[in-house]
Amino acid sequence: MRLTDATVQRLTLPAGGAGTRGHGDATMTQDIPGTIMFDGTQAQKDYYLPRLAIGWVMGVVVSMLGMYFSVAFDLPTGATIVCTFGLVLILMAAARPLIQSHAVS
């Protein structure tokens, strides 16, 4: 996938613009993934958008679950969220073969 001149122009800020802190021209790298999604083909969007949605939903749900465990068991919040993400990752990896075997059958 290539960035077009119009895409680069949208990402380039004027000298002293927002986010440049007076250091001249700069590109807003945080906007590049969103721009790539809009410039991609429909097949690419169909492939990545569901994965992006699953990632966002899982991130929110697991973070909330980690915060709940933190309050319920009086544990440090940051470490509990990280451990919850690890536990969910292990559970999903263990469940994946079961899900795939039922989908194939």
Per DSSP, the total helix count is 4
Structural class: mainly alpha
Tell me what portion of residues adopts beta-strand conformation.
under 5%
* Shape by Cα distribution: flat
Spatially, the strands of the biggest sheet line up as 1-2
Radius of gyration: 20 Å
Number of domains: 2
User: Could you report the average pLDDT, rounded to the nearest whole number?
Assistant: 77
**How many strand segments?**
2
Low-confidence stretches: none
Percent helix, as a range, is over 70%
Q: Please give the alpha-carbon distance between the first and last residues.
A: 37 Å
Series of secondary-structure elements, N-terminal to C-terminal = HEEHHH
Largest sheet: 2 strands, antiparallel
Note down, in words, how this protein is organized.
With 105 residues, the protein is mainly alpha-helical. The chain is built from four helices and two strands, in the order αββααα. A two-stranded antiparallel sheet has the order 1-2. α3 crosses α4. The mean pLDDT is 77.
Please give a handful of descriptors for the protein shown.
105 residues, 4 helices, 2 strands
Could you write a compact summary of the structure shown?
The chain is mainly alpha-helical and 105 residues long. The chain is built from four helices and two strands.
